[in-house]
Structures are given as C-alpha cells and as structure tokens.
From TrEMBL:
Protein name per the record: Glyoxalase-like domain-containing protein
Domain of life of the native organism: Bacteria
One Pfam family recorded for the sequence: Glyoxalase_6
Source organism per UniProt: Nocardioides silvaticus
All copies of domain Glyoxalase-like, residue ranges: 9-105, 118-223
Gene3D superfamilies, sorted: 2,3-Dihydroxybiphenyl 1,2-Dioxygenase, domain 1 (3.10.180.10)
Length: 228
C-alpha cells in the first residue's frame, strides 16, 4: 500500500501573479489572484491545483525540478512570456518561464485543453529515486538509458494530474531549495521517515503541514488527510 496520496503542486515565484498567469495559460488552468500576493491555479479536480507562492529569492541556479508541457508550437509559449534556451539539441524544446525557471516543451499536433505532461527531477540515482517515490505514492516504475540521458519514471500515480514523475541523472549536486515541489496527504509520517524521508519542520502555530525531504533532499509537504 502507498504511504501517501498526491495532493497538488507548488511553485515559488518573486511575482506570483505574473508567473501564475504564465503557467495558467501554458497549462490550461484558471488563475486565482490572492490579496496576499500569492496565486492558485485551478482545474477540473483538486489535484490539478498549483499554488504559486511568493518568495524573495530569484532563480539563481538550474532548477532541479521542472515541468514538461505539451504545446502546438514553441511560439505559443513565447507569446506568453517564455524565452528560448535550446531548440535543437533534444527531441523536445528547452525554454525558460518569465522568471528564468527551466521548462521543456513537447510539440504535439493537437494539444488538449490541459497540457501538463510530466514533472521532471534531477537525481544522483534515478533508479533509486523512482523506486522510492513509487513506494510512497504508488504507480509503476520504468527506466531507459539513451542518447539523451539516463531516466527512470513513475507512471500511473493515483490522482496525479500528469502522466509521469521522471528522474534523470545529473552530475551537479543540489545546492538550494527547490522552487517546485509537490504536496501529499498522509497520516503516516513515521512510515515515511522509516523509508528514508527526513523532517525539516513539523506543524506549529504558523503551518499545519510537515515539511519533509526525500532521500536526495528534495522538499515535499505532507498534510493530514481531510476528515471524512
């Protein structure tokens, strides 16, 4: 049995309303601007939600977590405020969002109304990371070594509004807090710790969730399941 269920995504932003508008249009979600400066993107289920949270730190290094999206053409995302990084080296296109965060675009002839394809995470050991997260969330693990890198992934995660959680090997270590993370629901914090997760912060008077890290230090938040 999985230890947790997928809840939603979170994205850090210096200007949450601006970045939220970009991602809402890119992914096919609705934008809610909040009075505190944060934003939320909403879709057909609660799991489609993406919280865009204001932080003071700008992007300074390559993101270890990024989103892959489907689109009809690169120009569709450039018109929304994306900029080009690399259009030639891979089967996909590498871009940056308006705050400099990396994203990858996969060209499809007829994009659907909702366009988040997968969530991609840099890893030291992509096999171990995929197996760990499959144990936490459920799903099936796959793996591939090819000319564009070595990858493992989890597909069929119950409730996740994207096809794959992908881990790819990179040489550089993690140095800063991830600007993209996911939230879970679980009543088994001890079980997560027993499997190798770490606790960064427990619930207190300010937050009602537990901030944790996976075995490679990627942050995620765990909420107690809603009553009923």
């Amino acid at each position: 049995m999985p230890l947790a269920t997928y809840k939603d995504l979170c994205v850090d932003a210096v200007d949450a309303h601006r970045l939220g508008a970009f991602w809402a249009a890119a992914l096919g979600l609705e934008l809610e601007r909040h009075d505190d400066g944060d934003a939320r993107l909403v879709g057909p289920t609660p799991q489609h939600a993406i919280w865009v949270n204001t932080v003071p730190e700008p992007v300074t290094v390559k993101q270890r977590v990024h989103l892959d999206v489907n689109a009809g053409a690169v120009d569709d995302l450039l018109a929304l405020g994306a900029t080009v990084v690399d259009l030639e080296s891979f089967p996909w296109r590498v871009l940056r969002d308006p705050e400099g965060g990396e994203l990858c675009m996969f060209e499809v002839e007829e994009p659907s109304s909702y366009r988040l394809y997968e969530v991609v995470v840099d890893a030291v050991d992509h096999h171990a990371q995929a197996a760990w997260w499959a144990g936490v969330l459920g799903g099936t693990v796959g793996s591939k070594d090819g000319p564009n890198g070595a990858w493992s992934w989890v597909e069929g995660i119950p409730g996740a509004p994207f096809g794959y959680l992908v881990f790819g090997t990179v040489p550089e270590p993690k140095t800063v807090k991830n600007r993209i993370h996911w939230d879970l629901e679980s009543s088994d914090i001890p079980g997560l710790v027993a499997q190798g997760a770490g606790i960064l912060r427990e619930p207190d008077d300010v937050i009602r969730w537990t901030i944790m890290v996976d075995p490679e230090g990627n942050e995620f938040c765990v909420f107690a399941p809603e009553p009923g």
